[in-house]
Amino acid sequence: MSEFQRTAIVTGAGKRVGAIVAAELLRDGWSVIAHVHHVDDDAPAGSTKVVAELQDASCAEEIFAIAERLPPVALLVNNASRFAPDSLGAFSQAELDAHMAVNLRAPILLTEEFARRHSSGMDGLIINVLDSKLVAPNPDFLSYTLSKQALAGFTDLAARALAPQGIRVNGIAPALMLRSPGQSEQNFARMHDRNPLGRGVEPEDVVSTIRYLVSARSVTGEIIVIDGGQRFSPPQRDVQFLEDE
């Protein structure tokens, strides 16, 4: 089956890395369903836009419903993510619930719907976008980090469960790529390439890893860390809280 006969779903495709991933998959010949959060959010030209609230338990059905008129869905990129601050001493139960709903429950529901609709004999691929905090954790953004750790665990479990159906499940864990909410331009400029390789991680690194995973049809249950080696000397706090040097 050629790429022109396959559909990819990208969550959080209205901005930042998700928009770049969706646009590049279109360039590669995929039909793309671009999930966005709000009705007035833009989606890459040529994609099929779908609006859904990932905190709602109906989100997977709403997103997949629009795929009925498109080629079979062969790729799901769970990219959308909630990223809000809390920490021990300033823990927010509401933030934990919200992070788990968006960053964990929604990918689980989407994975289940993907598997339910998967055609026998077709290579299926699910990619969960994680965070390099997995291999270099720090206590900042507590609920966010816990949700990504849980999604990493689900990546392994789903890969084991779905392999007999020909569905591969992998993760990509990038370091800082774009300026985070609340991060100053100066801090981003100083911290972006603060790693042993001395070069910042770019959205294109995620795109190239997705392309690799699409072609690597025997790879499943893996998490690929993209951090320039930052984990070799991990910061003790989130980079946006480190003092400029």
From TrEMBL:
Query: Looking at the keywords, is Oxidoreductase present?
Result: yes
Which keywords are on file for this protein?
Oxidoreductase
List, alphabetically, the Gene3D superfamilies matched: NAD(P)-binding Rossmann-like Domain
Tell me which SUPFAM superfamilies the record gives: NAD(P)-binding Rossmann-fold domains
Organism domain of life:
Bacteria
- Coiled-coil stretches noted in the UniProt entry, renumbered to this chain: none
Entry annotated with the keyword Oxidoreductase: yes
| UniProt record similarity statement | Belongs to the short-chain dehydrogenases/reductases (SDR) family.
Protein known as: SDR family oxidoreductase
Q: Which organism was this protein described from?
A: Sphingomonas daechungensis
The beginning of the lineage is: Bacteria, Pseudomonadati, Pseudomonadota, Alphaproteobacteria, Sphingomonadales
